[in-house]
């Protein structure tokens, strides 16, 4: 698995070479990130959850989903970079918070019904 | 900088312990990712681009932005994991594509006016 | 059914009274719109499509979904207003475009398989 | 100004003719709505707030922004319709709620600094 540090450096260089740093404010990059997530949603929106689980085996949709995931990662890495945030460290810290708020005991099955309270995510 | 592989493994374990794997289809995780990006946008929406560039120095907003960035990274890593995608590899491949489509020569200044064509991103 | 013109006027007044017009640029309002859509997604993200179809019958989730839909409509009406766009007219025009691009004959069943091409939306 | 009731009826007919009702669950439509909002953000993401305020005067960008706004309205009207929600009524109710939470007195200038508390929206 390649490193997020390498990606961050590559995206930074990509922006610098093209003189695009002037556009890369956190506000603009957050919008770009949301735009790419929107494209990702568009690939999955009409699929059933089961179909979405098999999407990478589809010769047409699979590569498109992979490319959208790549775009999202690019903008997220860039946004973290301009904010001076260690992306993985921020995620691990948040996961520690979530582990305290959603203990294993309380969380099991907590989303098994509609309106069942907290989302089953980190 | 911590590794994305470590984050991926930690999130996987987090979901398994809570019996939440059943909810983590690509479709659902893409929605959760979009929801977290929405929370990130909400933190930045009323700031000027200049204010957004200084947001991490704000004692109240800075930690909130960092936490939202963390949440986005968590769901993105989880989504890539359930899809069997190497997140950083997908991003680097996409960056190579973008480098071919937006050459340094053509790209310089391309977004300097409204409607100036392709977005100055990867 | 109440009118969009009434809503538009009410939101305009709401912003004016609070001296918030200065923040309501199209860029900021588009971010706010996306933030509210993110909250809507968060309410539906762990539901199956079938559960989502029954969501309004849930005494806890139903009112929350209705409130999020309301928030989205507020920002969309406000955004159209500051842009000088007749919201419903823009939608009807787009629907006419879509009717030409996706004829009834070609469209029937077009989304019945993964990767089946154009999304079954307007 | 055209009516939201007319739009709702037109979109309903559009979906029925194409046999797309099967795909129009609230979950799927919320994703489609978010996808269209993502396209709208993409049109505005590199503009300054001031440029965004002038976007409709741009002969290239203006029509694109109008079309995206139309797409967002289409999916929002459709989503409200399948949920059985009166869209404008839900928005007006939410605005009443917001008026109670953010009184005119307290709200004036509340977003005038970074981290200045509640967002200056409805």
Please render the helix and strand layout as text:
The structure is a homotetramer of 122-residue chains.
Chain A: H1 4-17, H2 26-44, H3 49-53, H4 61-83, H5 87-101, H6 104-107
Helix pairs in contact in A: 1-4, 2-4
Superfamily (CATH H level) name of the domain at 4-83 in chain A:
MazG-like
Radius of gyration of chain A: 18 Å
Q: What assembly state would you assign to the polypeptide chains in this entry?
A: homotetramer
Largest interface: A-B, 82 and 82 residues
> Which spans of chain A have pLDDT < 50 for at least 5 consecutive residues?
112-118
What share of residues are in beta strands of chain A? under 5%
| Annotation field: number of helices of chain A | 6
CATH architecture of the domain at 4-83 in chain A: Orthogonal Bundle
Q: Total number of β-strand segments of chain A?
A: 0
Helix content of chain A: 55-70%
The whole-number mean of residue pLDDT values of chain A reads: 91
Q: Tell me the span between the first and last alpha carbons of chain A.
A: 23 Å
Compressed to H and E, one letter per element, the order of chain A equals HHHHHH
State the CATH topology of the domain at 4-83 in chain A.
Helix Hairpins
CATH class of the domain at 4-83 in chain A equals Mainly Alpha
